[in-house]
Design a protein that fits this description.
With about 170 residues, this protein is α+β, with helices and mostly antiparallel strands. The chain has 6 helices and 9 strands.
């Protein structure tokens, strides 16, 4: 399992964009985790799935509400990673109104999740291999703090916890 001091694993995540922009066309766009995190402080949180109850009602909204405070604490970008495809993450981004605040990143084949060692097997619930719920503060690709939830819990990966760590 990834730990504090480790570098983020080499992986490609996908992001759906509704608006064409710099180096970003409409539709799913691939980006390299290492290149995208270089020289930046990232508040990264991951969760079991888009549109799931805790993820939609608490996890993402907390980061949206704390966007300005996280930026004031030195965070350049907020990333939400889930084992869903880019189209689902794009739809969820629209529903959560996260544009310009939280990047909704798809790890469709769970490559990033497997590389972190933070998988969650929800096969018995019909959801297959997913990501555990966690948050991490990353600076220039290195993990500064890591908050992994116990199964079924939402106590340490919230935005308030990561905000306190970013302020420290």
């Amino acid at each position: 399992m990834i730990k504090v001091g480790d570098t983020l694993p080499a992986a490609t995540l996908m992001e759906y964009s509704d608006v064409e922009g710099k180096a970003c066309s409409i539709g799913p766009n691939a980006f390299d985790v290492g290149k995208a995190s270089a020289g930046k402080t990232i508040a990264l949180f991951a969760l079991p799935g888009a549109f799931t109850p805790t993820c939609s009602a608490k996890h993402v909204p907390g980061y949206l509400e704390n966007f300005a405070a996280l930026q004031a604490a030195g965070v350049d970008e907020i990333w939400c990673v889930s084992v869903n495809d880019a189209f689902v993450m794009g739809a969820w981004a629209r529903e959560q109104k996260s544009a310009g605040k939280v990047r909704m990143l798809a790890d469709g084949s769970a490559d990033f999740t497997k590389a972190t060692g933070l998988t969650l097997d929800l096969t018995s619930r019909g959801m297959g291999l997913r990501s555990n719920r966690y948050s991490m503060l990353v600076k220039d690709g290195k993990v500064l703090s890591l908050n992994v939830e116990a199964p079924g819990k939402f106590e340490v990966s919230d935005a308030a916890t990561l905000l306190e760590q970013a302020k420290a």
